[in-house]
Amino acid sequence: MPPRWPRKPDRNDPAFRRLDDRMNFAVHVAVFLAINSGLWFVHNLNQADWSWLTPLSGIWLGGLLLHLLYIAVIADYSPATGKS
Predict the structure, then answer these.
(1) Which residues are CB-neighbours of 31 under 8 A, at least 6 positions away?
(2) Please, are residues 25 and 71 in contact by the beta-carbon 8 Å criterion?
(3) Is the dihedral of CA 63, 18, 8, 83 positive or negative?
(4) Which of 37, 57, 62, 77 could form a disulfide with 14, with the two C-beta atoms 3.0–4.6 Å apart?
């Protein structure tokens, strides 16, 4: 059963923003793992000479780590203050 949010979802709600960012990160990790594992599997199975695969995986992993850094350290999930 999927998780249920106890109130109307609103991006202005800090708890909802935090959960949404973490779910987006989980999707990013899942796509990274699925595509990279498939590429490396085919690479090893065919003994292919794909020189582009290591940089692709490294750059994508770097982007994934930056995404984690953003949601863990940089993102501000404090309640929004009323602006006039």
Answers:
(1) none
(2) yes
(3) negative
(4) 77
Q: What is the DSSP letter of 70?
A: I
Q: Kind and range of the H or E element at 61?
A: helix 53-69
Rg (CA), the chain: 18
**String of DSSP letters for 18-50:** HHHHHHHHHHHHHHHHHHHHHHHHHHHHTT---
Identify the residue whose tokens are 């199975």.
45
- d(CA 56, CA 53) in angstroms, rounded, equals 5
pTM for this predicted structure: 0.81
Tell me the pLDDT tens digit for each residue of 17-51. 898 899 999 999 999 999 999 999 999 999 999 99
* Cβ pair 60, 32 in contact under 8 A: yes
